[in-house]
Request: fold
Amino acid sequence: MAINFNEKKKIFFLTTKNTEYQMKINEYDMLLHTYYGASVGKTDMSYLVREIDRGFSGNPYEGRDKRGISPDTLPFEYSTYGAGDFRVNAAGVILSNGSRTMDLRYKSYSVSEGKKELSGLPYVRGEEDNVQMLEIILEDKTANIEVCLTYGVFEEKDIITRSAMIKNNSDKPCQLTKAASMSMDLLHKKMDLIHFHGRHAMERQVERVQLTHDIHVVGSKRGTSSHHNNPFIILCDHDATENNGECYGFMLVYSGNHAEEIEVDQAGSIRVVSGIGSEGFSWLLNKDESFVTPEIIMAYSGNGLNELSYLYHRIIRENVCPKEFRDVKRPVLINNWEGTYFNFDEKSLFEIVDAGHEAGIEMFVLDDGWFGKRDDDNSGLGDWFVNDRKLPGGITKIAEHADSLGMKFGLWFEPEMVNEDSDLFRTHPDWALCDPDRKPVMGRNQLVLDMSRKEVVDYIFESMAKVIDSAKISYIKWDFNRSMANIYSNALPADRQGEVAHRFMLGTYDLLSRIRKNYPEIMMEGCSGGGGRFDAGILFYSPQIWCSDNSEAINRLKIQKGTGFGYPVSTMGSHVSASPNHQNGREVPFITRAIIAMSGTFGYELDPRKLSDEEKEEIKKEVSLFNRYYDLIQRGRYFRISNEKTEDYFTSWQFVSGDKSESLVSLVVTDVRANPEIPFIKLQGLDPEGEYVIDNIFTSVTNAPEEAGIKSKEEKDKIRYSGRALMNGGLALDPLYGVYPSVQIHLKRL
Reply:
């Protein structure tokens, strides 16, 4: 069994294939976290908790004579405010008498088979896995509050999930001021924090800092998980690399305001708290009411960052994303946004569909501008009916034309937004989030609908359903194009306005669920100005997310690399866009753009009418290659090959099939040099006893010096490589010359 409780020692053991997680109930019924890491054979690890008297660290009343036992130094499993723990905490409350203390003690536990749903929230599905669940009830008898800590143990996948439910059992209401999903104390660790910061069009940039005696907060107050700080963090050894060292991952399955707080305390222990951001948050709990927190996905690797990423990739692809699309081949698409923006009509769209079909593309997606009075981004949002001036045949005619050519059809929506210049706002101005008697902050000249209100969610669903029912739609791109401010609902009283941001997310999740339930055959792609809601919460409904509004290939190297630390390649929307690029004006070879975009869901973001015949033939080749390698890219194991020391010269990454029979290696030179060093890489994940040949080479290099060119097929066929040689001895490539040159090498085991 994955979950065991030693009644005598009062220890909980959560064990997976390679890891162990321990909690212990102490003599005062405090639940302590004592260990998380590599398996230790169920040794009682509470010996790591040293009882030292530290000045100004108080003691529980019943243990006032044991000054070494202090709430301020104990490794609590779920920390709270007010009862002597002065570190960052997971939960806070205001009782009806004004008291803010919560002092939780152990009450009971239960173990069950399988994975339960999380009411109203996305979660990690149990699917066909052998999963056990542990529920531990803690209580504050004075406040009459219970907290149920829930753990899901995915034994074979080395994953543990956590969430909490806080219940008011008293006759009087109380107000939650903080309700995080988890806290954990890591004892005697010296670690770095890796987090993924950014901005619009430059999301999930990797930043690694050494933890010091202070409090780091990674989070968002924007109403979304945000472009700026992703709700996924890693703690790792100072000397941890891609393939060595201890690494802990904490990923929040949530798309709204969040906070990851990391504190190194006075004794050197590291506390991690993660969950809904507490700034601006409050939640009223009346008698017998409960609040359920989002889920956390935890993973541990003793073998470096690549292994940690693999654990997250597998659980997200197989247990978070909708299973209906897990193994379904996704079509290579063309999106008209960067090709036309708002400047299109029915005739031009037909021409784009025809040109895309001629180039071998498999789906056409109509982006913003097809609805309401929508000729720019100042009007129309909320009016989800076809602009018949632009499209006299409606959506139906375009979808039918694409279908006649054997292409699928997709459509863009921004359901949670409204413009002042719209029929919806003129009819229901109170449906927008806005403070009373105050002019709102505008973003992209649009307002945010109050998704905490059922009537708003109902209206948006019915409007979308009418459009979806009018045509054969295979794909929806779901966008969210501003941060949330003036978060005030006209439907809630003053003392409940702190609930609006979370209720908004519950309403959005409800709408997503209804679309999924009523149209299970339609695949959705999440988007928020690109990667502003790239999180496991959205991936519960949408198997892929538009990775960034920045489609420029060289910038995408860092964006996609950072994203790949936690999220699988199969979730990353990535397209080939025009050159010079619209975002930064850079020119990059067509093939290099394709090689980078292939490390994602793959598609095109340009106007195919402007392509030469040669470029259209190139697209056919790229689509054919991507489809040939589809399973390898989407389901294979992904490795980061280059690192921050080599990436001032080149970036390289690799895919390996599950049976290790094939591998795809990509390399892009970002700093082409005269008299260069040899590009040298060590491959990973191969069969050490296997013998491999280079099966195919795809490269942008066409006119390199003879001595520096890519070897011909005849030459490469003569070489046999053992897997052991490629992993230990490495692979030395000929230098690549030209403008951002690239090469993609397919290896096949004999």
About this structure: The mean pLDDT is 96. The longest helix spans residues 500-518. Residues 337 and 367 are 6 Å apart (CA to CA). DSSP finds 14 helices and 39 strands in the chain.
